[in-house]
Amino acid sequence: MSKPTKKASALKLALAVLAVLLLAACGTMWYLYSQVAPALDEGEAGQLNQVKDPDLEAEGDRTYNLLLLGIDYDTDRDYAEGKGNTDVILYLQIDRDAGTVNAFQIPRDTYYGEDMGEGRKAIEGKINEVYANGPDQENLINNIANMMYELFKLPVDDYVTIDMAAFKTMLNNMGGIEMYVPWDIVTVDKNTGKEDVVAKQGTHLISGDTAELILRNRNYATADYQRLETQQYFYAALVKSLLEDYTLADYYSTCKVIAHYINTSLDITDIWGLYGTMLKVKPENIYIVRAPGGAAHINGHKWVYYIDRENCARILNEHFRSPDKPVAAEDLGLATGYEYISGMNVDEGRTMGSVMSAAEEGQQELNAASSTSSGSSASAAD
Predict the structure, then answer these.
(1) Phi/psi at 102 (nearest 5 deg)?
(2) Pairwise CA distance, residues 52 & 40, whole Å
(3) What is the pLDDT of residues 215-227, one digit of tens each?
(4) How far apart are CA 248 and CA 171, in angstroms?
(5) CA-to-CA distance for 32 and 42, rounded, in angstroms?
(6) Cα-based distances in Å from 329 to 228, 322, 326
(7) CA-based angle 172:351:259, to the nearest 5?
(8) Are 328 and 148 in contact (CB under 8 A)?
(9) Which of 15, 125, 262, 344 is 20 to 30 A (C-alpha) from 43?
(10) H-run or E-run covering 205
């Protein structure tokens, strides 16, 4: 019998090593899966059962629609009774075939009317109160999902709610993210009126604590409207980090850290598939737009965000509905006939690629201004 050649022995050794590595990788992934999967459930949000009008289906089976909610449990309002308010409302429509994502930002102070459903009366008239106080107290998600459909005629296939505190935990676990801050972020102490600059304009490594303050800050002339634009820069930074720097192991590690802060109708395999889909979507194919409108005093409420129905219908028809299935403005459940306190804002939207480009250009302008200033100082010294 002939002896095995050195080449054959080396091949066998390589195959054995590869097999061991594959088994180790599978074992690691199974361990991570076993740690994350049990923690993902519907929790207090409950089962989604959105009531839809079959005559006003926006997209049929063409797209997948996901509702993302950031829940604020650390609030000084007492009407949520520990169930939290929806501080961030983001509607995502994903077209897997086309490789596109459309995102609709809804201000937390959006005026929804005087009835939360089934005769439940408005408290402040703002959409952020509906999740916790609507008629379905067993499945809180239906309160906001049904209100979304009433106001915008947008179907929801699945949902994710995340405790706003989890943003801190997630970003700290990631080691922070590089974010361009488009303007100075200033907070104001309610008791003393003292201003504090949280982050200066420019690109910084943003920690979890700073990110939470940036996401929630509303100390702007246009309050929620500008706040949503600031959030766009955060989303762009997060997308860039996840697409360029993250591995599957990193993904599971982050999921493990924040899973307990999440309520969702998705299981871990759904999320894994969604993550895989998003990896294939280019930033220039992610479109994001804010609901058009502005501040108003309505029906005795101190102030609310009043959405312009005509422009909202146009934007939704152009970007979130099939061309052959538009929904007329009068079929939306948005209020009309009120006056704006300081004018109306209409956002035509932009892509995440555009946001990233704007961030780069903004930083370049800052660098140029800093260089000019340094040169002037040096000349004066000479």
Answers:
(1) -115, 130
(2) 27
(3) 777 666 566 788 8
(4) 17
(5) 20
(6) 23, 16, 9
(7) 30
(8) no
(9) 125
(10) strand 202-206
